[in-house]
Amino acid sequence: MGKEVFLLDDQGIKRALTRIAHEIIEKNKGAKDIILVGIRTRGVPLAKRLAQRIDQIEGEIVPVGMLDITLYRDDLTKDENDPIVHGSSIDSEINDKIVILVDDVLYTGRTARAALDALVDLGRPKMVQLAVLIDRGHRELPIRADYVGKNVPTSKEEIVRVSLMEIDKKDSVMLEGSKNVV
Asked: Which segment of this protein is annotated as the motif PRPP-binding?
């Protein structure tokens, strides 16, 4: 069994999100026409935090929605019990808007692909971008994040564990099962 390696604490997460917020504003020449959409579960509080940072920096309130990709996943089988669907909630019109999908960890790209499929069912954005707190590599699909808090090279056996105050009562990112020190 490998070690548990500490990657980010609450201040590290805060700095990463602040940097991503600045990058979003810079790339999109402001915050106009942007909608942040968090992928359930941990993408939602991250999207809300990003919206707060953008408002602090730019003085513009960015709408935040949540996307449930459960029925769009390609790893659900007919043999599984009924999946729990929480539903999506995007109160703003996404047509002709810049939608930034927000998630905690980018790994194979399959979650991002499912989110794109779910998003297209809700409308036709002008552009879709992807923001992630952690990019751990090992893509199985041609997907990359536009905004990354931290790149963490991992083995496929390792697990990146993101804990957020809103869900887990603490902010941290840990690498579990590591044989090396990061």
From this structure: 99-111
Domains parsed from the chain with CATH numbers: 11-74+85-154 (3.40.50.2020)
| CA–CA gap between residue 147 and residue 102 (Å, rounded) | 9
Strand (E) or helix (H) holding 8: strand 3-8
Closest CA to 104 of 24, 178, 21, 46: 46
Using one digit for the tens of pLDDT, what is the confidence trace for 121-138? 999 999 999 999 999 999
Mean of all residue pLDDT scores within the chain: 92
End-to-end CA distance of the chain: 16
Cβ pair 107, 138 in contact under 8 A: yes
Element (H, E) at 161: strand 159-163
Which residue type occupies 136?
Answer: R
Amino acid letter for position 6: F
Q: Whole-angstrom Cα distance, residue 145 to residue 142? A: 10
pLDDT band at residue 49 using 50, 70 and 90 as cut-offs: very high
d(CA 122, CA 120): 5
